[in-house]
Amino acid sequence: MDRITSLFGIKYPIIQGGMVWCSGWRLASAVSNAGGLGLLGAGSMHPDTLREHIQKCRAATHHSFGVNIPLMYPQIEEVMQIVAEEGVRIVFTSAGNPKSWTGWLKEHGITVVHVVSSSRFAMKAEAAGVDAIVAEGFEAGGHNGHEETTTLCLIPSVRAATTLPLIAAGGITSGEAILAMRALGAEGVQLGTRFALTEESSASRVFKEYCLHLKEGDTRLLLKKLSPVRLARGNFQRAVEAAEAVGATEEELRILLSRGRAKRGIFEGDLEEGELEIGQAVALLHEKGIQTVGEVMHELITDYQRACETLAANIYERLEI
């Protein structure tokens, strides 16, 4: 058993991203029941809604699950208190300084994992006392780091910078990609896009079907003056590109964003005015259709095992030559 499965008490080192408007109790419990680690996405939940999802997730699975909490969350104190009161044992933090809450969480017996986009932030997370790190590359959907480092470059860099258990994220959709990440030094993987488009995801079916028709180059990393976010092509993406092209200020961009755009796009399926967040790897999924979590997990594990066998056979043949 490796460090990731041991740390979380799971069968497979596969973590589902805690995505806004996608990662409710149905998705998180389904991933946990299938042997991975499901995460609730607190970033799009009011505190009382988060409490409800924690309780429903616990009722739906006897396996480990966690909560992803963006540290910029406006009611962060209330959310952290709910997590402690409800006995959540695993918290992934992101979008902020891990020093602010890691100590408090660990005092409450909670395993803490922090999401980073660079080796520099990985070292800061380790110094803050986190138990593991997610290194998320530029390919990922949703909010990204300013560094724009690809997963292929980020994982070995972070692996060289820290001894903590390392989880790779960004652009991972297949068993072959999982093998590649492990070869680079990651001990587990976190998948967002693949799980966002499953049957159990709370995202709108309209959003899911739209994303499954996206092709290579149909996502862009925008809003770099605020917090970089990867958006799928559409009216809102074009509006952001137009605003940035004429030098929109941070305040003007905030006004453009301040209409519940992500909820409208992802949760309500408003393809005209909504913010459509999804990763680059969505272009690899157009033949998959909307699958169940069970189907996705089975495919990931089967393809990973097949990739391992193929690689071993290729190495053996090369040695024989």
Automatic annotation (TrEMBL):
Database matches in InterPro entries: Aldolase_TIM, NMO
Name of the protein: Nitronate monooxygenase
Family matches, as CDD domains: NPD_like
Organism phylogeny: Bacteria, Pseudomonadati, Bacteroidota, Bacteroidia, Bacteroidales
Alphabetical list of Gene3D superfamilies matching this protein: Aldolase class I
GO MF term list: nitronate monooxygenase activity
Organism field: Bacteroides eggerthii
Keywords assigned: Flavoprotein, FMN, Monooxygenase, Oxidoreductase
Superkingdom: Bacteria
Keyword Oxidoreductase annotated: yes
